[in-house]
Amino acid sequence: MNALPLIIGIGAALGAYMLTVGIIASRAADATTLARERLARQEVGLGQSAVALQLEKPLVDRLLGPMRRWTNRQMMRMTPEAQAANFRRQLDFVGNPLNLDPAGLQTLRIAAAAALGAIGTAIGMFLGTPFAIGLALVLGVALGFYVPVVWLDQLVRSRRTELEATLPNALDVVAISMEAGLGLDRALEQLVRHQDDSLTLLVARALREIQLGRPRPDALVEMAEATGIDDFTSLVRGILYAERTGVPIARTIAAHAAQMRVKRRLKIRTEAARASLKILIPTVGCVFPTLWLILLGPALLVALSLGH
Fold first, then answer.
1. Looking at residue 19, what is its pLDDT?
2. What is the mean pLDDT of residues 128-152?
């Protein structure tokens, strides 16, 4: 059997890998452009007048409005600009692994598609049929093109889980600092100074943007929305509302921390209740057939021997 196709496929994969590593290493993150983009993104808060305007709209528009906005968001994600912005938010959220930016991630996808496509072509040439070559090539390219996206999504989910675990304790630290007489910014600085985790990285980034001149509500809201945690977003909006209305912020933060602990406890109980159902599938699919084979195997052999 000729080993030349396999050698060609491995060489193409190594070449694509070295090209990707070189491009990623040569690219430097443009901090000025990133800061300019963040300062340009202004979030518009909804006040009481905006709520009144929403209530004045017809019922059909209010019912179909969320579905229309969801459709618009999905269509925007299919465009290259929206896809690049989505990659930028995800990469910033997970800390820019491998110093990647959206262009670097797209380069990694293309290189992985080329490498796995070459390996798939080599495997198809070993099989010897044109259909196998074409099928292996298509599967390799598709797999290589989407593997980096799946990897990034996995990083985002892991970081979000870590944030949900550390958020209640961090809120307690901020609440205690504010009850001791510190302001919100100073309390957040104390949190960054005394803890070192993924949440404090986001908080430190928001504090730097505030020091550069960005309005504090915009920086905090973007920080919360970047996490994708609804409880955190509602907490930040509640803090800003309490600051505008004069409600004690420390009390609001402590109440949200207690509520998040209750939700986390209920989530753990739900996962524990689902454990028995998850164990049922491998038990029925793996344990029971083996048990039946051990118990009924000798009887089946005896029956077959008597039949012969």
1. 52
2. 84
Q: Is the pLDDT of residue 77 over 80?
A: no
Dump the DSSP string for 118-152. Answer: HHHHHHHHHH--HHHHHHHHHHHHHHHHHHHHHHH
CB 209 within 8 A of CB 38: yes
**Mean pLDDT taken over the chain:** 75
pLDDT digits (tens, 9 = 90+) for 238-272: 888 888 888 788 888 888 888 888 888 888 888 88
At residue 12, the pLDDT reads 58
Domain membership of residue 283 (yes or no) is no
DSSP 57-84: S-HHHHHHHHHHHHHHHHHHHTSHHHHH
Domain CATH code at residue 244: 1.20.81
- Residue 31's pLDDT band (cuts 50, 70, 90): very low
Q: Indicate the residue type of 188.
A: L
- Give the separation between CA 208 and CA 202, rounded to whole angstroms: 10
* Residues 114, 15: Cα–Cα separation, whole Å: 10
C-alpha–C-alpha distance, residues 214 and 122, integer Å: 54
* Short-list 223, 247, 226, 250, CA closest to 236: 223
Q: Tell whether 143 and 247 lie within a shared domain.
A: no
What is the DSSP code (8-state) at residue 197?
S
